[in-house]
Design brief:
90 residues; 73% helix; elongated; 3 helices
């Protein structure tokens, strides 16, 4: 039997933080930027992406490692990849 703290690969994508940040990105891009363009609406997607991207990358890494049958520190790898993406874009 699995331990109560055991997670399935990609479980972070259904966390409140991931779902909330995805909703923020979608609402901002589809409605707020068009109805109220400006500094705040321009930065809300960046904020949502700062939360969602590391969680998404962690899920991708977890699934990849699950398929390959290996375990490593996923959160650190996901944060490094997300920071590298933002550094490259900016």
């Amino acid at each position: 039997m699995n331990a109560p703290h055991a997670r399935h690969p990609g479980a972070a994508l259904v966390s409140p933080a991931a779902l909330g940040s995805a909703a923020l990105i979608i609402a901002n891009d589809l409605w707020l930027k068009r109805q109220h363009p400006g500094l705040v609406s321009g930065k809300l997607s960046d904020l949502g992406l700062c939360i969602f991207l590391p969680l998404f990358l962690a899920a991708v890494i977890e699934w990849t490692l699950h398929v390959l049958g290996r375990r490593v520190a996923v959160n650190v790898s996901a944060c490094i990849l997300a920071a590298s993406y933002f550094a490259a874009v900016k």
